[in-house]
Design brief:
With 291 residues, the chain is an alpha+beta fold. The protein folds into two domains: 155 residues; 109 residues, Rieske [2Fe-2S] iron-sulphur domain (Rieske Iron-sulfur Protein). The strands form two sheets. The protein has a six-stranded antiparallel β-sheet with strand order 1-10-9-4-3-2. It has a four-stranded antiparallel β-sheet with strand order 5-6-7-8, with no helix packed on it. A hairpin with a 6-residue loop joins strand 6 and strand 7.
Length: 291
């Protein structure tokens, strides 16, 4: 798997496929596939249906004779694999280079499995039970390999993980001095540090200061290098949009909000911050929303 991460030979194909996936005009449906509404990627949840159906079919296929229940389960798995794959491709297209390589092989293994199961279903409908079972077991082998590769992608490479999740554990609950208000540029994203944790600081023309974690929750991109848009900041890596007031993720591919900080100004002109309430974030308001 480590060698696969370094397999630069896959880059040309990965780039072409990624561009094709990004070019599909999904609109807000892309966020639906990312799982922004759920708070974490939806693909791992969706794959449980085809995997469960196919594994159950394999158990029935281990019995003598033909089982129409097994045939039905194979068909359910094939149908459920399609939306699961769509969610997986949407997430894959917004990953980093090494993750793209592993994800491409993960998708190829799963596509092989789905093809074998589709052939299994066709054989079963023609009454060729033995062939249908054999193709089903071959499909289960392929999707099992794909699942193992997906585990590496998710847990070893942290694709889909919240890359800002550790901020509340690294920053103390007390007020921290950020610097002097006069030293913060107006209308420009700036990186500062709180307990060695990088934060994004934005000072507006009315000297209002807003602070959120600088490490993008999606893939760890530096938000301080992004652009400001109507009370939000857009990640320079994959385009996630976060509201500066409270870190709410207005637009994906990020599925988790950014930790936000309370801000106060001292009589001497200093700026102090502390980690804000991690409770539920309200839906987007007119400022920072996209209409």
């Amino acid at each position: 798997m480590d060698r696969l991460e370094r397999a630069a030979a896959l880059d040309a194909v990965a780039d072409r496929v990624r561009d094709a996936v990004r070019a599909v005009p999904l609109g807000r449906g892309r966020d639906l596939l990312h799982g922004r509404w759920l708070g974490h990627p939806v693909h791992p949840l969706m794959v449980q249906v085809p995997i469960g159906a196919w594994f159950s079919a394999a158990l029935l296929d281990g019995l003598p004779g033909r089982s129409r229940s097994a045939d039905l389960l194979v068909g359910v798995g094939v149908a459920a694999a399609l939306p699961a794959a769509a969610a997986g491709w949407a997430d894959w297209a917004e990953l980093q280079r090494r993750q793209l390589r592993v994800g491409l092989v993960h998708a190829a293994a799963n596509a092989t499995g789905v093809t074998l199961y589709a052939a299994s279903l066709a054989a079963r409908t023609r009454g060729r039970t033995t062939l249908g079972k054999a193709l089903g077991f071959a499909g289960l082998t392929a999707v099992s390999a794909g699942g193992a590769i997906g585990g590496h992608l998710a847990y070893r490479q942290a694709s889909g993980a919240n890359h800002a999740a550790a901020v509340p554990d690294l920053v103390g609950t007390a007020w921290h001095r950020l610097g002097d208000l006069a030293d913060l540029p107006v209308g420009k994203p700036t990186r500062r540090h709180v307990d060695d944790v990088p934060v994004l600081v934005v000072r507006d023309a009315e000297d209002r200061v807003r602070v959120i974690a600088d490490t993008c929750s999606h893939q760890g991109g530096p938000l301080s290098e992004g652009g400001l848009e109507d009370g939000c900041v857009r990640c320079p890596w994959h385009g996630s949009l976060f509201r500066l007031d409270d870190g709410f993720n207005v637009r994906g591919p990020a599925t988790a909000p950014q930790p936000a900080f309370d801000v106060r100004t001292t009589d001497s002109g200093g700026v102090e911050v502390r980690l804000g309430d991690p409770g539920p974030v309200a839906p987007a308001t007119p400022e920072g929303s996209e209409g």
